[in-house]
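Structure (tokenized):
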């Protein structure tokens, strides 16, 4: 007899968010398929893919015919899709790579879903980013706030959001929920960027960039998974866009203070102008994506996702953040 369990597809299942999402779905008794960009070449690489997950290997940009066929097979019969895979780093990936992966890849996935499931209702959960609002905003940002994407990554994600919405409008069987995530932290996100900053704080070599009062937008990986699972099952999430953060207006100053206290380091007492910090970042091995995060300034409202889905962030920086510091030093 054919398997009657619900079938879910997770893209980017080898990253920490995708892997935790896949584990939780398997634990719920669902059939989980993982779409992988490349076939892992080592046993170590396979450890990121949870037990019980069925892997499919296909490049979403479809450079070869075998990719298209594998993508169709992965999509056939699914009820929910969690599209986490993306090209992320602005200063590592060329603009055409970001656009091809994040925009064309999303369009190819949606097309395959429509082809493979002509009469099946599919819920498409799309991982976007709060960076579509831009890096420096003083007002409280809601889902209705003007988007001002500045970087190639943010632009590619916002265009992909529009692709997802357009597909849903054109296909009555395709429902979507777009999640605009803050920067993810927690288990699996220790290295290299967060650990590098912690090391500088421990050595007394970190300074506040500017006055340190800018707001940094974060979401713990486990809270993000909670929200994704709610979006897949709640009718209220149908064809909606949600901000997804922990709802806390963290400041650079507060986060550095928590880290210094936990590591027994001296409190940071001095600051450096952002222009000088940008020049000096090379010596501290902080890349531009990390630097842009540290000087970003956004306060993001999550009233809508709390109201519609009953989402309630559980992780606390004082616990989960310091646990991440400890893992950096293991």
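Design, position by position:
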């Amino acid at each position: 007899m054919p398997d009657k369990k619900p079938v879910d597809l997770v893209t980017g299942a080898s990253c920490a968010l995708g892997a935790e999402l896949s584990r939780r779905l398997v634990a719920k008794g669902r059939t989980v398929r993982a779409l992988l960009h490349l076939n892992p070449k080592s046993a170590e690489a396979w450890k990121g893919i949870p037990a019980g997950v069925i892997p499919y290997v296909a490049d979403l940009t479809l450079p070869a015919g075998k990719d298209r066929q594998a993508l169709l097979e992965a999509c056939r019969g699914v009820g929910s899709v969690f599209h986490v895979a993306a090209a992320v780093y602005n200063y590592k990936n060329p603009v055409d790579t970001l656009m091809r992966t994040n925009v064309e890849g999303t369009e190819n996935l949606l097309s395959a879903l429509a082809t493979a499931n002509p009469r099946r209702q599919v819920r498409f959960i799309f991982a976007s980013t709060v960076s579509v609002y831009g890096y420096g905003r003083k007002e409280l940002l809601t889902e209705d706030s003007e988007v001002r994407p500045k970087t190639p990554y943010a632009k590619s994600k916002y265009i992909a959001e529009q692709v997802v919405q357009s597909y849903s409008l054109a296909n009555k069987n395709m429902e979507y929920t777009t999640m605009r995530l803050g920067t993810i932290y927690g288990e699996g996100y220790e290295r290299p960027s967060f650990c590098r900053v912690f090391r500088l704080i421990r050595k007394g070599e970190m300074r506040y960039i500017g006055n340190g009062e800018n707001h940094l937008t974060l979401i713990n990986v486990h809270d993000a998974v909670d929200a994704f699972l709610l979006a897949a099952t709640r009718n209220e999430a149908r064809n909606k866009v949600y901000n997804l953060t922990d709802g806390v207006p963290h400041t650079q100053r507060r986060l550095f203070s928590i880290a210094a206290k936990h590591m027994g380091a001296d409190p940071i007492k001095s600051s450096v102008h952002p222009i000088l910090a940008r020049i000096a970042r090379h010596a501290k091995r902080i890349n531009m994506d990390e630097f842009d995060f540290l000087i970003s300034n956004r306060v993001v409202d999550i009233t809508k996702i709390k109201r519609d889905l009953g989402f309630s962030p559980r992780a606390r920086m004082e616990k989960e953040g310091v646990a991440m510091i400890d893992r950096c030093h293991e």
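Reviewer-requested clarification: The radius of gyration is 20 Å. Residues 95-116 form the longest helix (22 residues).
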